[in-house]
Amino acid sequence: MLKKVLLPLVITGLSCAAQADTINLRVLGQPSGSGLIAQQKEQPFFEQLAEKTGLDIKVEYLPVDVAGIPDTDGLRVLRSGLFDIVSLRGPQVSRDEPSILGLDLVGLNTSYAAGKKHMDAFSGYVGERIDSQFNAKLLGVWPAGPQVVFCKPSIQGLADLQGLKVRVGDQSAANFVDKLGATGISMPFGEVQQSLARGVVDCAITGPASANSGGWPEATTTVLPVALQLAVNGYAINSNTWAKFTPEQQEKLASAISELNDDIWAFSEELYQDAMHCNTGSPDCKRGKPYSLTEATVAESDLATVAQAVGEVSLPIWAKQCNAVAADCEETWRKTVGTQLGL
Predict the structure, then answer these.
(1) 1.10.238.10, 3.40.50.720, 3.90.180.10, 3.40.190.170: which CATH number matches 20-143+231-273?
(2) pLDDT, tens only, 324-342
(3) Most buried residue, 118, 121, 188, 325, by most Cβ within 10 Å?
(4) Strand boundaries in the chain, DSSP class E
């Protein structure tokens, strides 16, 4: 009889021990309506992470808007441990950690190749800051895509933004449009389409793929495809969660997320080209919804204005902001990215 009593208890104990070994990961993702990167790359990756890595983990993935958390709170959420892994929206969280803006100042990353080089050069410093200030490990960064200008009134170039209200993604973009005589307005992505339709803002800056997913072409007439930034994003994991994994497990997890980052870099470039086709009604549109925006021709003067913005606008203003929280911020940027630019 004693054996009959003890055996089920032993089995139950072993079962509980096995369950205790499973690591639960709560992942806070990109907004549900932000586009195909979140829908076709990020969410499937995390939902299949246990199978992909062979790790004994259970993953719960929630888009940031579904979770009811402001995307500006990504780093605070990481530090609190409320979520274990966060898909950081760089521009949005940069108010809590200004060094992140140094990865993607206006005028810095006007192409994917430039963006990869500059982000690689400075992401190590950003990772150190996130570690020391938010108890988290940066696992890589990736671009949503070139940030271009969508307007309800017809425009022909950047000069036509003077006097208009422009939705911007971060302070660097706000400073840039201010120099153009426009007013930069920050607002969540999900509110932009209606704000354009109602005239709360005249223009808005984002990537063509995100604009297509968000229905922006329904409320605008013109797209000016001059790349101001690449909209840097990234993945970070709470350091206490990271410590739950063995070194071998950490390597598997980091390697898998590194592959995701590389995949998104390539996919982002594909999406940009396709979304431009879709937004302007080209028959080459494959992935998005077709619209009929007018594509303004980018003048050489606009390209020059954007190129000059790094040294004249975005770097000086950002450096003061970043140096205020980290004395070595600008110095490190100039030794890494700045060296590549002659700044």
Answers:
(1) 3.40.190.170
(2) 999 999 999 999 999 999 9
(3) 118
(4) 23-29, 57-63, 85-89, 136-143, 148-151, 165-168, 183-186, 203-206, 222-224, 232-238, 294-295
